[in-house]
Amino acid sequence: MVVDSYDILLYLAFASITYMTPVLLASLGEIIVERSGVVNIGVEGLLLASAFAATLVAIVTGNPLLGFASGALVGLLAGLIHGVLAVYLRADQIIAGLAFNMVAYGLTVMGLVSIWKHHGASPRVGVSLEEIEVAGYYVNPVSLASIALAILAWYTLTKTRVGLALRACGEDPRAAEAMGVDVSRYRVAATSIGGLLAGIGGAFLALEVVGQFTRGISAGRGFIALANVAFSGWNPLLAVPGAYIFGFLEALSIYMQQWALGYEYVARTLPYIGTLLVVTVFAWKAIVPRSLAKPYVKE
Amino acid sequence: MKGITKVYPDGVIALRDVDFEVYEGEIHALLGENGAGKTTLMRILYGEIRPTGGEVWVWGERVEFRSPRDALAKGISMVYQNFTLIPNFTVLDNIYLAVSSTMRVSREEVVGRLQMLMGELNFKIPLEATVEELPVGLQQKVEILKALVMGARILILDEPTSVLSPLESRALFELLRSLKAKGVTIILITHKLREVKSVADRVTVLRRGRVVGVFNVGEVSERDLARLMVGSDVVVENRGVEGVRGGVALSVEDLRVRDDRGLLRVKGVTFNVRYGEIVGIAGVQGSGQKELIEAIVGLRPVERGRVLIDGLDVTGYGVGERRRMGLAYIPDSRGEGLALTMSLTENSVIGLLERFLGRLNSVRWGLAEGYAGGVVRDFNVVHRSLWDPVLYLSGGNQQRLMVGREISANPRIIVVHEPTQGLDIASSNLVRSKLLELKRRGSAVLLASSDVDEVLGLSDRILVMFDGRIVGEGAPGDFDEEKLGLLMGGFVEAR
Amino acid sequence: MRLGSLENLRSQLLEVTLALVVGFVGGAIALTAFGHNALENIQVMISYGFRDLGYLLLKSAPIVLAALAFLVPLKAGLFNIGGEGQLYAGAITALLLSKVGFYLAIPAGALAGLLVGVAIGLLRVVRGVNEVVSSIMFNLTLYYLSMFAIQRYLLDPVYTHQSIRVDRVLSLPEVVAVMLLFPLAVYLLLYNTELGYRIRVAGSSSRVARYAGVNLNIVTIQSMAMGGFLAGLGGAIQVYGVTSVVDTTLSSLYGLGFLGIGVALIARGNPLAVIPAAILVSGLLIGSHWMELRGRVAPELADVVIGVVILALSAPYAYRVLTSRMGWGVGGG
Known about the structure:
Radius of gyration of chain B: 24 Å
Oligomer: heterotrimer
Distance between the termini of chain B: 54 Å
Order of helices and strands of chain C: HHHHHHHHHHHHHH
Shape of chain B: globular
Strand content of chain B: 15-25%
Number of helices of chain C: 14
Number of strands of chain C: 0
Radius of gyration of chain C: 20 Å
CATH class of the largest domain in chain B: Alpha Beta
Strand order of the largest sheet of chain B: 6-7-8-3-9-10
CATH topology of chain C: ABC transporter involved in vitamin B12 uptake, BtuC
CATH superfamily of the largest domain in chain B: P-loop containing nucleotide triphosphate hydrolases
Number of domains of chain C: 1
Number of helices of chain B: 17
Largest interface: A-C, 47 and 50 residues
Number of strands of chain B: 20
Helix content of chain C: over 70%
Largest sheet of chain C: none
Structural class of chain B: alpha/beta
């Protein structure tokens, strides 16, 4: 029996790496965005839109890499739009994000119905990336890449000049501007890159985790990523364990659904209750970028 | 700068056909009272604002700056009143960030240049300290260093001494003289006549957006300058309004208060304020007055000591309860005292709402409107409708509204922090006379202001505060300028 | 009573109208992109949506309440995204107690919503948990728990794809009364009482609220409680007034909370304007279902249109730039 539980634990541990990837990528993207002083609540919608695009392209072309590319592209565009809205049109960032989620949900379901004539799910994609073998279990290369990206993001933010300037935009945009930093451009660049990363996350979600596009496939992951951003103290390195915790909760939830017959729905609440508990317990006063979500007006 | 005009979208004309000329290597003062347009003019020079009309010429070339980066490229640098430094970055990070925006340098190069400059100018600042840890005087030096490292040949300083003690100001002027010797051109924005006389070579006087005079400093007197600045002889403060001294209204005993970051800012302060008197606290910004006042009003918890109103220990009471006992408070920041998105009427009754409630806790807006009407009339608040959001008002009008609503309530005790900030001389005089009237009618007034003349002119008794302690006490007549300056700067006399 | 000057009203109406146009254009683009006839479908949506007045009003009522549920906390500076979950809680609780009677079931539903709202508020006050995140977690959790409750405890023995029926269906006048009463009550609360004033001060600026002696923590709990109450009531009314059952996939409840948010934004935060805004959105919703029947387009087009409208409304500065370029002076900086 001890061997059994050890096996299960190991299986869950590796599965968690896969499940954590979309959240990690979205979190990394949002950390960059929020460090520059913008909030993108629309991450949820971004995941939906990029998952849809990736599925569509992957089914049509049969090439998962192209699927990833299109997901990334959609994410980039959506991030860019949010950036323009937030920076140049001075929109209320929270409301714009929520509206975007609505639009993305609506568009993707419309697409689902119009293209594949189905209300719930697309056909299975059927192709996916080659996985890497580690100690008898399989890990997706994108998952490993996302961890590497976390390290890269941390390094860029803390050790390079670009990172310094970006953080300045989030701390005190007035001072940053006076020091010659083009705050607007940095912020739009940040939202675009954030969107790109989330886009890869969405593509991964559709192509590697689920294997198809389903209505509402993001299932709150965007918001969990937002929670993770705060939980990690806006530090890309800490976003990894945070995302992993979520990944583990999801893996556990799916596993439990298999033997908790009759209580499947309850098992499905596990990731959300878990996230809520984690955020509640670990509510240290993280160093919020001071100028978060406030539009910077030049004159 | 020739024929500079600046009109804002809401119709305010900030600058009218201004000609401004500075020679290389001189220290040129730009003199004018609050709101005269000095900062606006310099912000145009620095590329932050675009002029509505006129031309700017630098080193003989016509320029059109679109952003500070363009100005920096031409060697123009500006040090603002509220510093453009990022508080939780280190000194080096701040300077490196600024420098690397305009030229390609490595961190090491920046460190090298800084050390060289600090050596030449004879002061030292720890580069790895975070800006917010440093005292204000040093932060200002960081700003100046930043400008120099970026190769500034023209340095604009906006009211630099407003945050400095008299001693630090003197040190600053020494620094300016050394810079001048190195060939740096300096433009000094100020409203203090003494400064103009002590350090500037030439002066341009602005009044209401127009140039009213340009002189060599040696050829003009302080009185002349004062007259030009205001348009008439400056009314010398006459505070000889005698009030009847009553019982003790407000009392503070051995108060110790910490700030938001846990630092002890008030280190054992004891004093009282009687009915019918004005007690003034003189001190450089950052001496602990803010924390002291917040503790007195009930916005900040006290670590040790007591606050008493009418003899009653209110140390544990909240703001609302203290207000109900007759305490009013004018904070030093409009962002704290005014809800910008709410209307004038709604703002007029903040803190006083109990007086305007009817049955079932409903608000009697008609009554509130009446009160608001009185406030805007008595304090000259220019407005369109009493139901417009306060944010439509100009800064000066907002200030008058905030000050007016507290004073008009006829409070028994009023605590006032920087009441005339941002106000022109006429409004400032109005506010001061209203405070004197309050005193005459028997109210107790506690005043804290960084404007030493204001404190000296209004108070019956003065407390000098430095680094969280009262270092001097007495009547205004007991202090001459030098003694006051020394006390404010932290030089306690040997007793 | 003052709602702002007439000029202000005119400018807001213009803003909303413009946003609606943009929304429909967005919808048209989406339709065309997916290969449908835009004009035809939108025409169906608009014409059929507003035909049956009674049904229209019935359907609007829960949305009015959901909108108010977002609006009240918004005035306090909070984003109550938890309307969805609070609504589910209200609906399920009402169903659970429907055996006892509607006079108990409906208030119980409101109470359930209130408790969820208070939970979100407490998390924020005590642990600093951001209410957007906690709201969504509650939404998703309550979504699954609701489906679980129906499947296990509330299933109709004969029609196993839906829950049991309620004991008594509310009549149209009763529902309309609710729909008119609560916006009025909220308006009076916010603009004529001390509590409303304190809520608005808290929402204006936390610094000023402290200065004025307003306890932000208490206001947070109070406004979230009210928001939860309204959303829970909305859920109960949806079950008792509109559908009388809830299906096992929760499709009759899903999305109402978010629509409420949209309505509150279209109403520019004015409780009274929520009524026409909700009727408008309901019409679009009903119309979109007709459109599905006739054109085989997903009814989620309504989400797209409404979402684009909100996007357009989220950038008032853009509107100001646009109108000043066109020379329409709309006063006030």
